[in-house]
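Tokens for chain A. Residues wanted.
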């Protein structure tokens, strides 16, 4: 989630970092033009601020905005936040959601429509008192996979509280899986051999910080540390690669694979600099795990607050590289050439681990073996319910008699189900 703030908003946290935001993994297929609409919407909102904490709703006229007005919605929270009223709904958004005629409140929005996704986000803007950017994918009411990007911006009736939320959303339908895979592989191959000379762009391309110098995405040309360079130099290189993979406008599997490859290079160097590595872990407050040593490496490189699922996946990839005894500088190309890429490699590595594990004991057979040799119970010791009923396990003895070797607790749910089944 991207959070951008106005001036002097209550509970403002501008003085603090947002480590969670740094770990956002944005869908790859939402392109430059889609982002630009959100940037223009944010700049418009910021232009209405003046010296107030929140812009006034009287200054907003979505029906007169030819640019993003058709893709916008205005929610009125003055009657409560549980079911805000829909004051305005743009024509393009209305058509996408297949809404005909008037619509009064958010509860009236068709299920699984794009507009219904707002309920996942608008409560967050109330808590943060600042514009919130979001990006995700879902299956819409027509069964199509949709990528969407939006921004929600707070407005006030008097300037001191959030009474309205103005949202601007655009979207695109994803290509079929087969076509996506083919295109993705072709793009990744080109990027690996011809890194694009284009600058990084923050999420809000011409928002705050637009005048800062941009770096060039050219990981392939990074100078590798020397053999005897400090471990911190290797970590700095790996972290730079991770940051570029995370923030670059041109981010793709190629950039991610380079970053993971650099993380693996760092992991290899830690083997000959154990003391220095331990100091780095202590400095960053990261604990190494004996059962998964590569997890600490990934946390150092990508950040301890990075998405836990991805930390686990990347650590598994590094384990695979270590098992394969790959050399420094070779893992990125190895990943790119692996059939199915990173996901397939992680899947295969986990499957190999499961195959190497000892077979789990058959619980059913273990239970039967236990009952076969259990000591017979005294029938008088078996508890019964008010009707004198009990559910027991009996064993046929060598002389043909039945011995009670087990019993369910009196009044247990399982016992009641067994009685019902036996009575049928």
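Reply:
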């Amino acid at each position: 989630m991207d959070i951008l703030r106005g001036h002097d908003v209550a509970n403002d946290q501008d003085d603090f970092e947002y480590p969670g935001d740094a770990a956002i993994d944005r869908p790859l297929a939402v392109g430059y033009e889609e982002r630009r609409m959100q940037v223009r919407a944010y700049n418009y909102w910021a232009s209405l601020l003046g010296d107030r904490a929140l812009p006034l709703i009287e200054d907003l006229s979505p029906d007169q905005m030819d640019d993003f007005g058709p893709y916008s919605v205005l929610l009125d929270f003055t009657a409560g936040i549980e079911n805000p009223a829909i004051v305005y709904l743009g024509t393009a958004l209305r058509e996408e959601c297949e809404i005909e005629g008037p619509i009064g409140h958010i509860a009236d929005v068709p299920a699984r429509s794009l507009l219904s996704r707002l309920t996942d986000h608008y409560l967050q803007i109330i808590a943060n008192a600042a514009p919130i950017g979001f990006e995700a994918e879902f299956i819409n009411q027509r069964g199509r996979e949709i990528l969407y990007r939006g921004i929600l911006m707070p407005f006030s009736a008097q300037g001191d509280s959030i009474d309205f939320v103005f949202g601007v959303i655009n979207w695109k339908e994803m290509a079929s899986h087969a076509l996506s895979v083919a295109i993705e592989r072709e793009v990744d191959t080109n990027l690996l051999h011809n890194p694009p000379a284009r600058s990084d762009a923050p999420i809000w391309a011409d928002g705050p910080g637009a005048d800062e110098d941009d770096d060039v995405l050219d990981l392939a040309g990074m100078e590798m540390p020397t053999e005897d360079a400090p471990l911190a130099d290797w970590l700095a290189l790996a972290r730079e690669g991770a940051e570029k993979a995370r923030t670059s406008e041109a981010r793709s599997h190629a950039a991610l694979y380079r970053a993971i490859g650099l993380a693996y290079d760092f992991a290899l160097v830690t083997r000959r600099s154990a003391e220095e590595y331990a100091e780095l872990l202590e400095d960053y407050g990261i604990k190494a795990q004996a059962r998964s040593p590569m997890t600490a490496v990934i946390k150092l490189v990508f950040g301890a607050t990075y998405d836990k699922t991805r930390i686990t996946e990347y650590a598994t990839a590094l384990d695979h590289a270590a098992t394969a005894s790959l050399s420094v500088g070779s893992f990125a190309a190895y990943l790119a050439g692996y059939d199915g890429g990173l996901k397939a490699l992680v899947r295969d590595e986990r499957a190999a681990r499961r195959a190497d594990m000892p077979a789990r004991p058959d619980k059913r057979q273990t239970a039967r073996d236990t009952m076969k040799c259990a000591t017979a119970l005294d029938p008088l010791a078996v508890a019964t319910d008010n009707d004198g009923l009990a559910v027991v396990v009996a064993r046929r003895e060598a002389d043909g008699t039945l011995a009670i070797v087990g019993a369910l607790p009196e009044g247990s749910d399982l016992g009641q189900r067994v009685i019902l089944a036996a009575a049928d």
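The CA atoms of residues 33 and 39 lie 10 Å apart. Confidence is low (pLDDT under 50) at residues 1-33, 198-222.
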